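Ticket 4471: requesting a sanity check on a complex prediction with L-homoserine. Repro inputs:
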Amino acid sequence: MQKENIRLGIFGFGCVGQGLYQVLQQTQGIRADIARICIKNPDKPRPIATDLFTTDRALILDDPTIDVVVELIDDAEAAFEIVTTALSRGKAVVSANKKMIAEHLEELVALQKEHGVPLLYEGSCCASIPIIRNLEEYYDNDLLTSVEGIFNGSTNYILTKIFDEGLDFQTALKEAQDLGFAETDPSLDIEGWDPKYKLVITLLHAFGVIVSPEDVFHFGIHRINDHDIAFARQRGLRIKLLAQCQRQEDRIHAYVLPKLINGQSHLTDVNHEYNGVVLESAFSESQLFVGKGAGDRPTGSAVLSDISALTYQYKYEYKKRTQGQGAGLSQESHPLKLYIRYEEEQDLNWEDFLSIEERYQSQSHRYVIGTIDLNTLAQAEWLQHEHINILGL
Ligand code: HSE
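Returned structure tokens:
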């Protein structure tokens, strides 16, 4: 017997909401209908005219005929409130809000269990790349050792434009904003917060651990200047903002850092708003996933895939957690080779270095290439100086 279509209550009609609307219109055979779209500002011009719009959230949350809440708003706190209310009322939820999810993983996993309803969030990590479901399903019994990738489309777009077209940082950022890739507050992208939230979500599905974003070290591309670009070019390298986590026995190292990579890396040719994820595992060895990591329709397609999965009762089982494979986050004993640009000798704490390979000094700037433990780096006060930049090597 043909089951009835599921009824969707959508919160938010910004970039991703509109992308979802478009992909839903163009997808044949999806057993889902939009019942309502809740928006914040009724006076804002909208690209479509529809009587589905409302500003009253109760028309979705209190409507027992709406089965699924699709949360696509910007504000992480308001999103958490909507998502927890929906789950508590027995509604399944789809969300793409990486900040909200990363900051509340423990509660969100517990709420799903308590109320017996799923929360799916494929669109929160690397947009169109189906990384979460792959980690959950395909890699549920392989020995995954590391996940490394470009998890942010805006910064990859900016770096591509700087390296390939010689654009300056601000012009490239403006383009990423105009194309709808960047967050409303773009410092979340360029300072590395956004890929860190995605990494925190990935950690749960890759290794079964829930960690707080504040315990994961991150550094963005906001301090990159012409000296750093020239250094990379001279050595035939490119800069990519990478999120990575590795498991070594029961210890997991995780961090976000811009890195200088050469042509042998799988990620060198992943450009513009594309994201790339390299998985290493004991038996399948190295695998690369590539896809658009930002933008309305690529993210909308991931949200659509979650909605479709709900039509056949899919839910995350958090198998790695329940199978007891969980290990703990550790920042110790993880040496990182770094290029560090600075101005004055006293800017750095030289005792932080485990070793030094190279030093350079000119009238305009200085740099050192050396090794520092991740734990030391995460606590280094000198990293706060605006004229210091670090790149992994
Ligand atoms: N601002 C994000 C990015 C959007 O640039 O990757 C997709 O999560």
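Notes from triage: The mean pLDDT is 95. Leaving this open until the requester confirms.
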